[in-house]
Amino acid sequence: MIRTIIIEDEKPAVRRLEKLLGLFSDLELVASLNSVEEAVDWLQNNEHPQLIFSDIVLGDGLSFDIFDKVSTKAFIIYTTAFDQYTLKAFKLNSIDYLLKPIEEEDLAKAIEKFKSFLPEEGLVNSQEIRQIVRKEKSTLSRILVKIGYNLKVVSINEISCFYSENKIVYLQTKERNFPTDFTLDELENVLDETKFFRVNRQFIISSDYIKNIHTSPNYKVDLEFQPNEEISVSRERVKDFKDWLAGN
Length: 248
Hints:
- This protein is an alpha/beta fold.
- The protein folds into two domains: about 1-115, Rossmann fold; about 140-245, CATH 2.40.50.1020.
- It has helices at about 10-20, 35-45, 65-70, 85-90, 105-115, 125-135, 185-190, 240-245, and strands at about 1-5, 25-35, 50-55, 55-60, 60, 75-80, 95-100, 140-145, 150-155, 160-165, 170, 175-180, 195-200, 205, 210-215, 220-225, 230.
- The protein has a five-stranded parallel beta sheet with strand order 2-1-3-6-7. Strands 12-11-10-14-13 form a five-stranded antiparallel beta sheet, with no helix packed on it.
């Protein structure tokens, strides 16, 4: 049986999804959770499922906040009425995105997609998840930026980092920085994760431009081209950062 949970705050949507999931005899629904807080608490205190159906907009925040606080090996199928979140949904373990009202045919296809990723013995490990999701994602090769009344195409290979400042995300090149129309969360989902890594809430860096890495007292990175600001690796990201470097 495939252990499954629902994260959804609208009771009619919960009832509909529970009814639809009941059509699949190999799914075992173990919990229905209705908030970020409740989902975080449940995931911290229970065996994680293999599959999560999660709404995006919940009463106390976005479900993305759940998985920022709790790491999981489960696959996630997002369900929402807000299609502007499509890009953000495809992060980490997300394998599909269903718009409400969910149709039985679309749900069946999403579940079959999930099953196609599973090895015979069941749950995959986190590295396998990353490899699977990487195959599913399209990655950016260039970005269009605006300079006054002109447009410029910047190749991803020219970019040393992306960073946020005053609610605007900039890309940095040898030439200068340029404002973009992306958020860092969106960029995380469409950048080649073998080449780019989010070291903290403010910076995504490219391995091609790392000049030096300081390890004491904290991890700090010097890039060949960077803004006039120190780039520190957040404490909770240090292990993933080292794994990323080793993978490169």
